[in-house]
């Protein structure tokens, strides 16, 4: 998968060179290219923002740097036969990012992330981007961040680990929180007793059917107590 990121703070993404995603880049599974949006400005100050029409606080990101950047990246993608890209703008006004979203996006050939700043991006950028690719405005949740970089990093990590070959044991992905609509069951390791706290006996029993049943019940109980919104009315009311 090819992933392009547009940001005025490209160093934000240095952490994506570490651990599993770093290995995935080194082996060619993921082609991550972080671009500085200011490279597509033409004035000596490399200006990417201006005052909003209609007044109001703050500044708005100018459309032309975005248009030039998207043109270059999308044209590169077309030349390499990568197909029509999916262009993602983190936004508190977007759809909520979920594990289902991550699974969907992990199947795409080319993702472009546009990290807004200030009071946001000129609305015409989204309209123009829709002519060059599939546009998705996506939110991590009902809160506001200083910019799109943190949200983009979170999405890239969630998406990237679902790409075949990135995680060494793909079976581990199946049992994680949200994969089946429930939270993950609790995990334990050695020693069996630690500071007067014992590992549940069932996990030491060797009875795989009993262990599976216990883990399922733990998933349900955790979800009922912590995220009842993930359960249907009948299941959340049951015990």
Q: Describe the global form.
A: elongated
- The CATH topology name of the largest domain reads Alpha/beta knot
- The name of the CATH architecture of the largest domain is 3-Layer(aba) Sandwich
The helical percent reads 25-40%
Low-pLDDT runs of 5+ residues are none
Sheet with the most strands: spatial strand order: 2-1-6-5-7
Number of strands: 9
Family: Belongs to the RNA methyltransferase TrmD family.
GO cellular component, one term: cytosol
Domain tRNA methyltransferase TRMD/TRM10-type: 1-231
Biased composition (Basic and acidic residues): 219-230
Topology of this structure?
Elements: E1 2-7, H1 19-26, E2 31-36, E3 49-50, E4 60-61, H2 63-79, E5 86-96, H3 99-105, E6 110-114, H4 123-132, E7 134-139, H5 149-160, H6 171-174, E8 193-194, E9 197-198, H7 201-204, H8 208-226, H9 233-237
Parallel strand pairs: 1-2, 1-6, 5-6, 5-7
Antiparallel strand pairs: 3-4, 8-9
Question: What does this molecule look like?
Answer:
- This protein has 239 residues and is an alpha/beta fold.
- The protein has two domains: 2-169, SPOUT methyltransferase, trefoil knot domain (Alpha/beta knot, 3-Layer(aba) Sandwich), CATH 3.40.1280; 175-230, Trp Operon Repressor, Chain A (Orthogonal Bundle).
- It is built from nine helices and nine strands.
- The chain has helices spanning 19-26, 63-79, 99-105, 123-132, 149-160, 171-174, 201-204, 208-226, 233-237, and strands at residues 2-7, 31-36, 49-50, 60-61, 86-96, 110-114, 134-139, 193-194, 197-198.
- The protein has a five-stranded parallel beta sheet with strand order 2-1-6-5-7. The chain has a two-stranded antiparallel ribbon with strand order 3-4. It has a two-stranded antiparallel ribbon with strand order 8-9.
- Helix 2 (63-79) packs parallel to helix 4.
- The longest helix has 19 residues, at 208-226.
- The two termini are 43 Å apart.
- The mean pLDDT is 92.
- Belongs to the RNA methyltransferase TrmD family.
- Its main location: cytoplasm.
- This is tRNA (guanine-N(1)-)-methyltransferase.
- S-adenosyl-L-methionine binds at residues 116, 140-145.
- It catalyses: guanosine(37) in tRNA + S-adenosyl-L-methionine = N(1)-methylguanosine(37) in tRNA + S-adenosyl-L-homocysteine + H(+).
